[in-house]
Design goal:
The protein is an all-alpha fold and 407 residues long. It folds into two domains: 73-242 and 313-406, no CATH class; 246-307, no CATH class. It is built from 20 helices and no strands. It has helices at residues 2-24, 26-29, 32-54, 66-69, 74-81, 85-106, 108-115, 127-143, 145-149, 156-177, 180-204, 207-241, 244-251, 262-279, 289-296, 302-307, 314-346, 352-368, 378-399, 403-406. The chain is globular, with a radius of gyration of 23 Å. The termini are far apart.
Length: 407
């Protein structure tokens, strides 16, 4: 009863807050973010309404607009940061510090088990979510390394030492977390960031200046890789090769022969999801779509139905729940954030390293959400809104600056 009332009160509060923004938020009313939020709410209400007449037995008693609306909390973060790079970097640094303190204090036993070869999740929802958070931290530490350790001063040795220790902690956590999607995302996002740096340096004619930091970064990355191979080589190889049979079957198009392993469960659930999508491709099945696929697909084994309630892919979950309309809203949001980041950087309102982190994070985030629906859980929502809020605040500083300030 209490949970039921709390859900209704939360929905009512969100609606009242939206009305307040429409009435009093002069600047916000001019932002595309608000209209995208309204579109997200409308899509969820429309999907729920049509579902109520099509399959009422599977529809919640309210549209649950928070499912997509919570991805727009970044608007409050961006407004609070006030367009300040300094505030943004302090917020990100404090978030990293709080996260590290939490996992180091609350889970020392996890670290010991991980170092002994067991897969661990640091007490954060499940093994994948802890690894994802450490992956974001590692990405930020690499890209902001120059800002953290290069400025000269009496504290440069201490800053470098602290940076090195935190890097080692994050690298160790990523290794013992044994989440292959995070490894893959970092292996793509970091070289992607390096290519952007080289392209920008070539365009500016400063290739020689950027070459040294890149070589140093490459050397450190190679050293970390060698250390990881020495300390966790057996575990890493086992995790990488564990799904070789799945890959073999997929390569030969034998979907029916794919075993129900970690990746195999994902493949089968995605196949089931597209069966449901084909029935309602435009409007979807409502907010409970992902759990409907698992619970009511007859050919999925009972083991999957008892142990899983989501599809391990945020974008497929959105499509199942809200159809192509929902996918279009998420795509429009991603495009708006990317365009805003580009305009803020080009207009001089966003520093180079912040823009580079935004681009690398986008690649990382797209990849990890293909294998776990982080944006459907609090961990992903937390990271999404912190990072996007920091990017959007720079865009708003550029967007709403006086014309002479843009020159």
């Amino acid at each position: 009863m209490t949970e039921h009332l709390g859900s209704k009160a939360g929905t009512l509060s969100a609606l009242l807050g939206l009305i307040a923004i429409l009435v009093y938020g002069k600047t916000m009313r001019r932002s595309a973010a608000l209209w995208l939020l309204l579109a997200a709410i409308a899509v969820q209400v429309v999907s729920w309404t049509f579902g109520y007449y099509h399959h009422p037995q599977w529809i919640a008693d309210n549209p649950q607009i928070d499912r997509l609306a919570k991805l727009f909390i970044f608007t409050a973060v961006a407004w609070w940061l006030g367009g300040s790079t300094r505030n943004t970097l302090w917020l990100w640094m404090l978030a990293l510090l709080g996260f590290l303190i939490a996992v180091l204090i609350t889970g020392p036993g996890e670290w010991l088990r991980g170092l002994e070869g067991e897969r661990v999740g640091f007490g954060i929802r499940n093994d994948q979510h802890g690894s994802m958070l450490f992956g974001v931290a590692f990405l930020g530490l690499v890209i902001f390394a120059r800002r953290l350790i290069m400025p000269a001063g009496r504290w440069v040795i201490w800053r470098s030492a602290v940076w090195g220790v935190v890097m080692a902690v994050c690298a160790t956590a990523i290794a013992i977390g044994q989440t292959r999607a995070v490894w893959l995302a970092l292996l793509i996002a970091l070289p992607f960031a390096g290519l952007i740096m080289l392209a920008w340096a070539h365009w500016r004619g400063t290739g020689k200046r950027i070459l040294r930091p890149l070589l140093v970064g490459l050397a450190l990355g190679s050293l970390l890789a060698l250390c990881a191979a020495w300390l966790f080589g057996g575990v890493l190889i086992e995790r990488v090769t564990a799904e070789s049979s799945v890959i073999h079957q997929l390569a030969h198009g034998n979907l029916d022969a794919v075993p129900y392993s970690s990746i195999g469960i994902r493949i089968h659930s995605w196949v089931a999801a597209f069966e449901w999508i084909s029935e309602r491709p435009l409007l979807g099945w409502g907010g409970e779509g992902r759990s409907l696929v698992i619970a009511h697909t007859p050919w999925l084994p009972e083991m999957v139905k008892q142990n899983f309630g989501h599809l391990h892919n945020f974008f497929i979950e959105v499509w199942v729940a809200y159809g192509l309309l929902g996918v279009a809203v998420i795509a429009a949001l991603a495009f708006w954030i990317g365009r805003g980041t580009w305009l803020a950087w080009r207009g001089g309102a966003m520093p180079n390293d912040v823009a580079l982190f935004g681009a690398a994070f986008f690649v990382y985030w797209i990849i990890v959400n293909q294998f776990e629906s982080y944006d459907s859980f609090w961990t992903g929502v937390y990271v999404h809104n912190l990072v996007v809020g920091g990017l959007v605040t720079h865009y708003w500083r550029w967007r709403y600056a006086k014309p002479e300030e843009k020159l």
